[in-house]
Design goal:
Blueprint: H1 12-22, H2 48-54, H3 59-73, H4 81-96, E1 100-108, E2 111-118, E3 130-133, E4 142-152, E5 166-170, H5 176-185, E6 190-194, E7 219-221, H6 224-236, E8 241-249, E9 252-261, E10 271-277, H7 287-304, E11 312-318, H8 326-334, H9 337-342, E12 343-349, E13 361-366, H10 373-385, E14 391-396, H11 402-406, E15 412-418, H12 437-440, H13 443-462
Parallel strand pairs: 4-5, 5-6, 6-7, 10-11, 10-12, 12-15, 13-14
Antiparallel strand pairs: 1-9, 2-3, 2-8, 3-7, 4-8, 9-11, 13-15
Helix pairs in contact: 1-3, 2-13, 3-7, 7-13, 10-13
Bound molecules: zinc ion.
Organism: Kribbella steppae
GO molecular function, one term: metalloexopeptidase activity
Keywords: Signal
C-alpha cells in the first residue's frame, strides 16, 4: 500500500466514508439526559439549562470531525501543510455555524519529517508510518533498500551486505555521528535510528535526530511501536525492503483558529473561551491528543450557535501547542489589557477521550494550582452530572494552553481524563502512532467531557 501516511490522496468525503466502513469504531453513547452516566458515582441532577446543552450534543458529529482530523489528515505538525489543512477544515466548520471566524498566523521553527513505505506490504497498515528526519542528514530524498539490523549504535555488528541497504540501530545520541558515517562508508542508503523503550505506560515517540552535520544519507528517528513492528517483521521474513523519504519544511507559519460570537451584553460583554489544540507531534495521528479537545470545541460551537448568551463566546483551536504553547502564548500576547480583563473563564480541553481503562479520573489542572471561575464551574457541573467523586483538582499542572492564560492572570484550567494516581499517568498511545480513534478514543468519555464543559461554560456565559 502506498497510503500509509495520513496524507491520503483520496477525496475528503470518500476518505471519511471509507474509514467509517473499514475501522472498528467505538460505541456511540445513547443515554437520556437524566440517566446515570457510565462510570459516574451519582445520578445526575440537571437544571433546565444543562438539559438544553446535553440534549443537543452529538458525539457522532464529533466523531466525524475526528475522522477528518486524525485519519484523513493524520499528524498535524505545527506550521506544515498538514496543520494548515486542519486549520482550514476547522475554520470552515466554525464559519458554517455562523461564527465570525479568523486565522491568527505566527511564525514557527523548521520541521523535518520522514515517511516509511513498506515495499512488500509486510508491516501492519493500521499504523501511522510517519517518522522524524535528522536535519543534518540528507533531506528531500527517497531511498529504498532491504533492512539490515546492526544492533546497538554504540557497538554495531556489521553484516557483509550493508551496501544498498537501510541500516537500523538502537540509538544513542553520542554514537550517532560515528554510526551514520560508518553506514554511509559501507554503502548504506539510509539509517533508521531506534529509540530506547520507555518505562510503562510511556512509549517513545518518533524524533528528528539531532547532532549530525551534512551526513550523505537520510537518517530518521522512529517511535517505539514502529521499532517493535520492524524487528518483529525482520524475525519472520528473510527480506524487508523499505522505502524512506525525508522532507524539510522551512519558513513556516502556524495558525490559531478562532470563531467568535458577540454576547448580548454588547461590546464589553465578558468573554468565555472553550478551546483545545489541533496540532500533534511527528508520527502521531493525535486522535486523543488533541483531536478530542478539538472536536469537543467544534461540537460545542455547533450547540451554542443556537443558544444566545450574555457573554461573548470564543471557540479557539491553538496551533503549535506541542512545540511549547506557541499559539496560545502568541494569542495572549496580542490581547490588550482591556480584552484580558473581560475574560471570565477559559476552558482548555487537552486529551478528553482516551479509551485507556486506568484513565478513570477527570482532572482539573490549574497552572497556579488554585481554583478559579473555570475550575469552579466545571466542579459544579460535575456535581450536577453525577461525576463529582471522579473529579480531582484543581491541582497544579501546566503543559497545555491554559498556562498561557494563567501566566497573565486570566481564569483558566485544563481538563483531561488521566490515570487516578497522577495527572502525569498518561495512556501508552500518548504522542505515538497508536494515538488513533480505534486504539485511543472512547466516545463515552468524549460525550461526558462535552457535557461537563458545555454545561459549565453555559453557566458562566449566560450570567
Ligand atoms: Zn496535547
Amino acid at each position: 500500500m502506498t497510503e500509509r501516511s495520513g496524507l491520503s490522496r483520496r477525496g475528503l468525503l470518500g476518505a471519511v466514508a471509507g474509514v467509517t466502513a473499514a475501522t472498528a469504531l467505538p460505541a456511540v453513547p445513547a443515554w437520556a439526559a437524566d440517566d446515570q452516566r457510565p462510570g459516574a458515582a451519582n445520578h445526575p441532577n440537571l437544571d433546565r439549562y444543562d438539559r438544553q446543552i446535553v440534549s443537543s450534543l452529538s458525539s457522532e458529529n464529533a466523531l466525524r470531525h475526528l475522522q477528518v482530523l486524525s485519519e484523513h489528515i493524520g499528524p498535524r505538525i505545527g506550521g506544515t501543510q498538514s496543520e494548515k489543512r486542519a486549520a482550514d477544515y476547522i475554520a470552515g466548520q466554525l464559519d458554517k455555524y455562523g461564527y465570525n471566524t479568523k486565522l491568527e498566523p505566527f511564525p514557527v521553527a523548521d520541521k523535518f519529517t520522514a515517511q516509511i513505505d513498506d515495499v512488500r506490504d509486510i508491516l501492519p497498515n493500521d499504523l501511522c508510518w510517519q517518522a522524524g528526519a535528522a536535519p543534518g542528514g540528507k533531506l528531500d530524498v527517497t531511498v529504498e533498500g532491504p533492512v539490515r539490523d546492526v544492533g546497538p549504535a554504540t557497538a554495531p555488528v556489521w553484516p557483509a551486505d550493508v551496501a544498498g541497504s537501510i541500516v537500523i540501530a538502537d540509538d544513542t545520541a553520542a554514537a550517532r555521528p560515528a554510526l551514520v558515517a560508518e553506514a554511509a562508508a559501507r554503502g548504506a542508503v539510509g539509517v533508521i535510528l531506534l529509540p530506547a523503550d520507555l518505562v510503562f505506560p510511556r512509549r517513545a515517540s518518533a524524533f528528528s535526530p539531532a547532532g549530525l552535520t551534512d551526513a550523505p544519507i537520510p537518517v530518521i528517528g522512529v517511535a517505539q511501536v514502529q521499532k517493535r513492528l520492524i524487528r518483529e517483521a525482520l524475525a519472520v521474513v528473510n527480506s524487508l525492503p523499505l522505502r524512506i523519504s525525508t522532507k524539510a519544511h522551512r519558513g513556516l507559519i502556524s495558525n490559531n483558529v478562532i470563531g467568535e460570537r458577540r454576547g448580548k451584553g454588547g461590546a464589553d460583554s465578558p468573554i468565555v473561551v472553550v478551546c483545545g489544540h489541533y496540532d500533534s507531534v511527528i508520527g502521531a495521528p493525535g486522535a486523543n491528543d488533541d483531536g478530542s479537545g478539538t472536536v469537543l470545541t467544534m461540537e460545542l460551537a455547533r450547540v451554542f450557535s443556537r443558544i444566545p448568551t450574555n457573554a461573548t463566546l470564543r471557540f479557539a483551536l491553538w496551533g503549535s501547542e506541542e512545540q511549547g504553547l506557541i499559539g496560545s502564548r502568541y494569542h495572549v500576547a496580542q490581547l490588550a489589557q482591556d480584552q484580558r480583563d473581560r475574560h471570565a473563564a477559559v476552558f482548555q480541553n487537552d486529551m478528553v477521550a482516551t479509551s485507556w481503562d486506568p484513565a478513570i479520573t477527570y482532572w482539573l489542572l490549574s497552572f497556579t494550582g488554585l481554583a478559579n471561575t473555570a475550575t469552579d464551574a466545571v466542579r459544579a457541573a460535575g456535581v450536577r452530572l453525577g461525576y463529582d467523586p471522579q473529579m480531582v483538582g484543581p491541582v497544579q499542572r501546566g503543559a497545555s494552553d491554559h498556562q498561557s492564560f494563567q501566566e497573565v492572570g486570566i481564569a483558566s484550567a485544563n481538563f483531561s481524563w488521566r490515570g487516578e494516581i497522577s495527572p502525569a499517568f498518561l495512556e501508552p498511545p500518548y504522542h505515538s502512532p497508536e494515538d488513533t480513534i480505534a486504539k485511543n478514543v472512547s466516545l463515552e468519555r468524549l460525550q461526558v467531557s462535552m457535557e461537563l464543559i458545555g454545561t459549565a461554560a453555559y453557566a458562566v456565559a449566560r450570567s
